[in-house]
Each structure stands twice: as structure tokens, then as C-alpha cells.
Amino acid sequence: MDFIIEKLNDMQKEAVLTGDGPVLILAGAGSGKTRVLTSRVAYLVMEKSVNPSSILAITFTNKAAREINNRVGKMMGGGMWFPWIGTFHSMCLKMLRMYPESLGYRKGFAIYDTDDQKVLIKDCLSELDLDSKLLPPKMIINVISRSKDELIDEVDFSNKNSSDYRMSLVAKVYNVYQKHLVEYNAMDFGDLIFNAVKMLRENDNIRNYFQNAFKHILIDEYQDTNTAQYELAHILSEKHKNIFVVGDDDQSIYGWRGANINNILDFEEDYPGCMVIRLEQNYRSTKNILSAANEVIKNNDDRKGKTLWSDRSRGSKVNYYKATTDSMEAYFVANKILKGMEKGRDYADYAVFYRVNAQSRSIEQALRDKDIPYRVFGGISFYQRKEIKDVLAYLKLLLNVNDNIQLKRVINEPKRGIGKTTLHKMEEYAIDTGSSMYEVAKDADIYPGLHKAAVKLSGFVAMIEKLLTAAIEKSVSDLYDDVIQMTDILKQYELENTINSRSRIENIRELKSAIITKAEDYYESFGEELTLETFLESVTLSTDADNETEGTFVSIMTLHSAKGLEFPVVFMTGMEEGIFPSVQSLGEGRLEEERRLCYVGITRAMDEVYIINTMQRTLYGRTQTYPESQFLREISPNLINYINGSGPSVRKTKTYNRESFGGLRITKGGKPISIAGFTAEAGEAADVKIGQRVRHKKFGDGTVTNTEGSGSDKMIEVAFDMAGKKRLMASFAKLKILD
DNA sequence: ACGCTTCCAGTTTTT
DNA sequence: CTGGAAGCGT
What we know:
The chain is of the alpha/beta class. About 45% of the residues lie in helices and about 15% in strands. It contains 31 helices and 26 strands. Strands 11, 12, 13, 14, 15, 16, 17 and 18 form an eight-stranded mixed β-sheet that branches. Helix 3 crosses helix 4, helix 10 runs parallel beside helix 12 (about 225-235) and helix 16 (about 325-340) crosses helix 17 (about 360-370). It starts with a helix and ends with a strand. The chain binds a DNA duplex through helix 4, helix 5, helix 10, helix 20 and helix 27.
């Protein structure tokens, strides 16, 4: 154990060795958070003789969970099994699977993803005769999900929203939606946490059992927990009070998804007498990069406050490049990467970040053009693809034939001549008889409205029945073969024979490899054959973020997906007001979260950062101009290396012809006539920063766009509103600083 | 019931 | 620009 402790700095040691009771670790970016967490787990087991099965460690991704498991295993020489390391969702699922009846569920309940939710919501809308134009399913899903995050059930929601007509309708949908979920024996993602809390609250025995079972609770990324997760942790830790949370309020970027930053901000009040330890030494970035990140984040009010420092060298300045178009931006990135490769860099050293997935297109194009291998992270994951979801829906249906949502997805996929009229009738009969659509399909010939479709329906039923037998007898991968073969799902794509359809076939084939790999892993870990249930569960709870970032390729991803990763060289693209920060966040006053996102981006970099914006961007088929991001101006110019000091904006500066502009009177020709009460001393504005508005006697008002050099040689570049761009000697220019 | 056309919306997304 | 959904004609 000593060899583990030796490697830690004082603060990390304190964190790892701290005694029982609540502990809050405020761990800055790159401060060795995972090392602390894993060391703590190893310490508890090896020094404090804590049983691994009484440790509950919660992470936000499966990847992080795996990493902790592996690292702890390695530290302890392997062979130790931690049954309770996982994500909030997987841990809750594990608890719920033990006592599903306590909530009126049956064994083997299904998990609904967003797609399933959407279908079910639409069903609920039509059942209630509500217009999906007035109440878009997406919005309803959002409202319901946020409510579950806040532990507001359908009854509470209805009571709270009785005055708002629209919301009272949503309340109705929420109610019917929950009813159907139980009926279909299914839970959505939000239910997993919500129901776990409910189960613990309402059942003394179950609560006591888990409170006793978990002697130590450790939570990673605590800043991104929502209210339900907070409550879960609170209940579980009530008895032993050993709650050890690690997080960084400055990296809370999932507020829009229900994360409650107050969980971390108020930890000290919620857990009186808790220990607070700050990890402020950053082992990742150079001093310059860190300073830039610190300068940005210090503009936030809603934070605990901490300043990261680094032992590393100053390093190079933060590079700033102003491109003309998004395509130029992308080629700048590509060329920089090629140059770096000549100097001995590896493709894997590079990451390109952007605010929205749609921005990846131009980046991808430039990289492809320059033959640079890359990989896009996030976006539509493999398991979200339509063709994969179709195959999975068949498998899910085999787990529960009464799951109408899956049945509706596959019954006419591929086309079997079963259309919506038939489906509508089946649905009605199912409601009338209180059975499922599959039961109705089985007895299609006894229902008057289904005579015509009866033959087709019985064909479908016969196929499913055969597959049901196969599901009992065969392994998941053999069952997959049967599904593909009997449903003939590939045929339509083969006939289509387009690039698109061929890639769909490839994906479906790829699914088999995924099944085989999972089955092998499972056998290795548990010595048992992978069950269909376990397979589907792991698929719904896994995401793209679990993918490996190692390899010889450039990683390109959204800033959100970048959290937790690090790269020697980072490109922050699209640093434009309206893109990043996004218009939506500006409109909703959610600037601080955007700024945290910027902080996350910069702190991913080890050696070099390139911040890029462009004057013209084509997004969603619309070309627009955006001003540079305010975050850029928050970094002081002495930390920035301006790659192209004067962009083409010089030539583009227009001569305004307005009567009055910025307190300046001008004539038709654009020449100022007089400036009332103007006085300025030479050198008064020697320390101006980029973005600063200044006034010049001759040129009028303008914005500082660049500064170069220092001391008496310092040059300032100012884009004057009327007179265009001028370069001035800082120590001589008579400039007045404006507010 | 199906396939073709038109229309529309379009952040971020660890589960 | 692009994918998905709704609408319409066969």
C-alpha cells in the first residue's frame, strides 16, 4: 500500500487517508482525481479491511467504472472483485432487479431509451386525443425526464401544474405514460433512479438492507448529479455516513440535463462536519494553458473558487487564429496537424472540439482531404442506428412479447403488408380486452376487423413463436443468426443497394461481432453464458462515450464529450458568439455553464491549444457571420499568440454612413467633424486588451483587435468603426479607453 | 399499404 | 444542408 501512497502529493494523500464521515474532494481538472478515487478504494480494502462488496462506487460512464475496477485491481495485485462499481443507472438497475415487486414491476422488466419513450408518448397523446403539434413529444419527454430528475411523480406534477393549461395536459400524458410503463413492465432512464429512491423510501426492510450493505459510498463527477441521485446517495449513506464525493463545480456542464450544481456547492451544509479537500495542482497542462483557463473561469460567480497551478513549464502561448470561413478553419486545423506530424507528433496527440455536432462536417472534410485518420466521437452511436435498433427490438420483443412498443417497431420491418390501419385496430382490441397487441395478433381471426390481415398476422406470430423457442434454447449470437435469417431483414437493404443501405448491412453484421465480444467478456468475468436479458441491458446502458480514444487517429468531438479526456494538442473551433456560447444559452441566461464548457475544453490540453473562430460560417445550410466569442476576450492578450494578426476583416470594414454613431458626428463622407470634450494622453491606452473599445481623436471609436510586442515597441491594432483598421504605437497613440 | 414528395426543424446528451 | 415525419396519390 505504501507504494501507492508515496506517489501522491500532500493533498491527495490527505484525501486518500482521511477518516470516516462525509468528505468532499474539490478536484480541479487534471489534478489526479481518478488516482485519488482508486487509491481510496484500495486503501479502504487493504488498510481498513473493508469488504469490497460493501463499497459502492458510482461513476458517470461505464468506461470510468471499468477504469476504476482495473486500476484498483492492479494496485492490489488483481483478483479482487468489486460488485458495486458502476454508473448511477447500472447500480440502481441492480438494486431494482433484486426487488422489482416492491414497485409493482415483474422480474426482467425492460429499459426504455429515448426512442421507445417517444413512441410511447405518441401513443399516450393519441389515446388522450391530444394534438402532437400543440404538445410535441420531445418537449413532453423533456418535461417528464426533468420531473423525474427532481423526484416529482405524476401526482405531484399534476398538483403543481393545475393552473397552466398546457402543463395540465402534460400532466395527463405523464399519468398515462407511467401507467403504460408499468403495464409493459418497462422503466425509462429516469425511472431507474427515481424508482430506486422510491423503493428505498417506501420499504424499510430494503432500505435497511442497503444502508447496512454499503459501508462506504464514493461518487465521482459529483457536480453532475441531479436531485434524484443526490437523494439516493443521501439515503444510502444515512447509516454509516461514509460518503466520499469527488467533483469540480467548474466542470458542471450538464445542467440542461437535470444536473444540479447546488449538490456540490451546498455539500458542506448538507453534510455538516464534512471534510473538504481541494486538489489544485494540475499535472496535465503547461502554465500558460492553465492561466488562460483560470482567466476564463474566474468570470463565473457561481463557484466554490479555486485556482489551479502547475509545476510544468510555461510552454507556448495559447494560439489564436482567425479564419475567414468554416472550411478555412478546418484546413487550418488539418495543416497544423500535418506540420505537427513532421515534427514527430502522432495523430492520437490531436483533438478537435466543437460546440455542436453539425460543425464536424467541415472538419471531417478537411481531414479526409488531407488523408488524416480521424474518429468522430458522440453523435449517433452505433446502438442508436435505425437498423441496429430494429434488430434489437426483435430481441427485446422475444424477452417480452407483450411489449407493444417493440412489437410496433418490428411488425412491419421489413415490410410484411401490415399497415397502420391494422395496427390501430389491434391497439384498440388490446385496450378493450386488456391484453397486449401480440395476444391480439395471435387470435387475429376472431376479431372482426382483422380478417383481412389475419393471414399476415399469423405468419408473423408463427415466426415469433419459433424465435421464442430459439431464445430459450440458443445462445445470444445463435439467436441473432435466427432473427436475421427468419425475419429476412437484410433483403430490403440488399435490394436497395445504395451506399447507405450497404452500410446498414455492414452495421447489422457488426452487431454480431459486438454480441460475440460481449459474450466472451461475460464468460471470462462470470464463467457463465451471456443471457439475452443481460446483453440487452448492457446495450441500453452503454454509449459511445465508452469507446476507446486510443489509436492512431485524430479525435474529433463536441466539448461535452471531451470531459474527462486529455490530449497533447487541442483545437477549440467555432469560438464565436452565438455558436459558443450558443444563442440559446445566451437567451436563457445560461452563460456560466457555457463558460464552464470552455474551461473544460481548454483544460483538456497538455501542451498546445489552438483557439479558432471564423468570420463566416455555414451551418444548417445557412451562411452567417458571427462575432468572436466573449470567452476569447477573457483571456489576456499576453497569453495569446496571434497567428494572423490582421485578418481579412481590414478590407471588409465598411464605412458607415449614419448620422450618429457611438457619440460621433460624421458627415456623408464618413469623416468626423468634431468630438466633444475629447482629451487623451499619449500612452494612456498602452495596456488595452483585445476587445476593448477605444476613442481616437482623428479616427473616432473602434475596437482593439490585436496587440503585439511589449514595452515601447508595443503595437496596437484597432478596427475603427469609420476609419477601418489602423496599427498604432501603444506608447504614442492618444487613445481614450471607453466603457 | 406503400412509396414518393414536400415540409420542417435543427444545442449540448456520461444513462 | 440533412434526416425524419407527415401528406398524398396510386
